[in-house]
Design goal:
Keywords: Signal. By secondary structure, the protein is an alpha/beta fold. It has two domains: about 5-260 and about 375-455, Alpha/Beta hydrolase fold, catalytic domain (Rossmann fold, 3-Layer(aba) Sandwich), CATH 3.40.50.1820; about 265-375. It has 17 helices and eight strands. Strand 5, helix 6 and strand 6 (about 250-255) form a beta-alpha-beta unit. Helix 1 (about 5-10) packs antiparallel against helix 2 and helix 2 crosses helix 3.
Length: about 475
Amino acid sequence: MRPLRPLLQALTLGLAPASAQAADPPPIPVPQPLLGPFRGYSALTTFTVAVNVLEQWLGPEIPDLAVHSAYLSYLGRRPRFDARGEPVLDERGDQEADLVPMSGRVFYPPTWRLPLRRDLPLVVYPHFTGLGKKAVPSAYGGHEWVFAAAAALYYGFAVAMPDLPGMGADGVHYHPFCHATSLAWSTLDAIPAALDLFRTDPWLVAGGYGWDGRTFLLGYSEGAYTSLAAARELATRPEAYAGQRWTLTGAACMSGPFDLSDQARRDLIRPDARFTYCFFLPYLLTAWAHVYGPRVDLREAFAPVLLEEREDGGILRWMDGTLDGFEAGDYIARRLGKPQDQVRVRDLLNPAWMARELEDPAFATSGMRRLLEENDLHQGWRPTCPILFCHSPADADLSYQQSLRTAERLGAELALAGSNPADFLRVQPIGDRGAGWSHLGAIAVALPAGFEWIHRGMPMDPGVSPGAPR
């Protein structure tokens, strides 16, 4: 274990909220601008202290006096497709599934942070995009698990981080990046396993830990997409989950690609469209080729120069999952002779394929339109619990319009059913219009804001009302 100083720092957090039922923390000045109605709240400061404390240990070395963690093991559903890439349906018309081993990690607050009654809410926190299979919470890989551990320590939550499908125990498969059904099923299947730990983990049993009956979803980027996909699954197929002992209390979905067929496509076909890291679009296409088989032909989709097999490989090898996304992006950028953030979408794709599958007027009848619409989350259903959308107006990788338009469309669905959208949907900008954080930079603000929203009882006073002018 590292020196004792981090433990002493952790003990100082005893002045902060000890549980999700505690009163709001006292205000501590923080840098401006922050989050509209959240301006001046202390969570960013003290949550960051918790992150800094936990970063000083390697994951397996964190003592239970700071945060307890438990390995999560369960069987998750993997949707089944036939050789044509079409869903395999059962006699009821539901898609069939294979059960595959899946994994994750759950973090819990130490006993000294809680009163004698230690019933905790469960926050299920799917992590954001990663191509490398080792960057998973179950193995303390990557960095994002530290935010989950900090939320357990600071707020008194039980925070479950499932490894995304195709990673961890399911590493034999390719990760189904932004495939809504795959991500929703695997995340929802983690919830019963996480709840079972309250009665099977010896440390939790000895400490008198239990579940307080509340279950939340929270995520950033692809984790936000996953969380909203899971919320939609519960809202549109309630009969499939009627036998569960839990229901969804709320969801915090921050900076996700919810609107693929409309907003994302229009952003992609702009002449100057690009990502800060150029592996995202190749990752999506490669993942969908694994899901849908012949419905996504990578040799037609990618630019010929990237398909060439040279001494350093080619894009099919770079995207096979053995490299992490940043490394794969470096190979792509070197092949194109540009820095990663200067690689345009049009540099990545075959112009003929792009014209046939993504650009107007051919898009109206293209195969990609059907796939994008199958994985849209921004319309066609009504939320059944409060949802927070948090997004930076300065996000150049995933437009702020993704969250705003999604709230507008879902708000319209709720209004048609006679419900008040303001009771279910809140859109909160991260920073002011014309200012804010990049997609990656906003993580350090958005995640504390999501946990804080849950801690405060999901206040729905709007940062931007659904339906407000864009």
